[in-house]
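Hi D.,

Good news: the full-assembly prediction came through. Inputs first.
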Amino acid sequence: MKILVVDDEEDVKSLFEQKFRREIRGGQFEFSFAFSGEEALEYMHNHPSEVVMILSDINMPGMSGIELLKRIRTDHPSAPPQVMMITAYGDAANHDQAMQLGADDFLTKPVNFNELKEKLLLL
Amino acid sequence: MHFIVAFFLIQYVASSMKHTDQAPKWDNFFKYARYYVLALIAIYYIARQPDMFNWVWNLSLLGLLWFFHKEEDFKPIRSTAQSIVPFVGVSMLSDFLELVFPKFHKSYDDIFGMVILFAWIFCFVIWFYARKQQKVLAQERRDRLRDEEIAKEQKQSLEYLVAERTHELTQQKEELQKAIEELKATQNQLIQSEKMASLGELTAGIAHEIQNPLNFVNNFSEVSVELCQELEEEVDKTAIDDNDKDYIKGIIADLSQNQQKITHHGKRADSIVKGMLQHSRASSGEKEPVDVNALADEYMRLAYHGLRAKDKEFNAALTTDFDTTIGTVNVLPQDLGRVFLNLFTNAFYAVAEKKRKLTEAGQLGDYKPEVKISTKKFDNKLYIRVSDNGTGMPEHVKAKIFQPFFTTKPTGQGTGLGLSMSYDIITNGHGGVLEVDTVDGEKTEFRITIPIA
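Then the structure:
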């Protein structure tokens, strides 16, 4: 399963790689990383229909996670990937907006990786 | 005739002298003058009315006139006294002519008599007129005295008014000065609270900025623990000497423990940051079911650690007496949290102050700072009590504690807004009551009563 993680913090990459070491080794998950919304869109353009799951931060410089979500839902109506939003601001307004725009799930930071792992394995 | 003139002249002069300061000085003189006149008239009748007696009268009158003229004291009546001059003059002329030219005098006897009579009447007319004038003068003098009296009274009442007004003005001035001082203090506190407000915003910003790196610290340390476990498993698979294996495993265990410590302290920092965020976040304005006991406990600890952060020496016994049957109550959690924070911060401050004062005075004895919280649900009402055995408050402080900007803390340590805000939250926000009971130097207890429908 190919998962694209979008976050402006580059350390997210090594964190995910370490957290999901076993799963990556076992070939269950395959992670790709984008450090901005623009980069994520570019990646999806270059690798069409590959990405099954997108994990995106909301608060990013440039294109925000919400904007990215909007673009994904309009640009890729066919074979839509699952989108899970992650944010430090777990307020209702953010949550409602993300869900309304078609997010499949909503997580607040700090991310509970065990919970995330379970959710990902269920897919 | 002469007797009447002399007698009335003396009488007149004596009566007009009565009003002046020199009256006693001349009393005797008038007495003797009267006796003299009476003696003369007596002698005159005893001596069977001799003609030459007119000379005696005239000379006496002249002497009297001369005397009045000579003495300065008689100046005011001098002109009136002179009115007898024509009478004396004519009388003397008549007598002289009678003596020297008896024949001539005889033929004009009637005319002389008439002239003397006129002169005599003239005297009395003048006297009568002078007397009237004197009465007018006396009246004027009385009026003037009365006017003076009135003026004096008015002056006194004016002086009293002035004194009163001066007193009023002084009082007003003092009040104004007090008002200015209060205004200055309020201004300082406003500046202070403005600083606090911006500090609150800053805190929220800082908290957010810290949150992200802190998440990484926690996540990486957590994953490192997992890695250590994996490493241990991998070491088991290898064919290394058992001693070396144990040594390696020991190192891995230490590493793992270190990572766990990092996670533990990172979580601590995380909860502090969360508390900061929660405190600085604006009130949502909506009531929600809240476990009040947990909320009170959380803020009690937050306040305690807040003070501990500033003063490492500080410690106090935290006693909780929670009614576990309360469950959840519909309240404004952030607002009520602020009330708890304020009440606890004040309570801890009060016990810390008392301890400091006792230590300074060297009378610490067995004083143990204690802050208590108790909750109780009864008859659809929620009762919360926050009490401390700190410094307490005197009556004049107690009367002002719910006023905005009133604080007893040194400048920079209190905004004077905590309790007024708490009061507002309890009364207006929850329709409840916030009361205080205190014994100066001994204890303070705040009682919150909130109706729960």
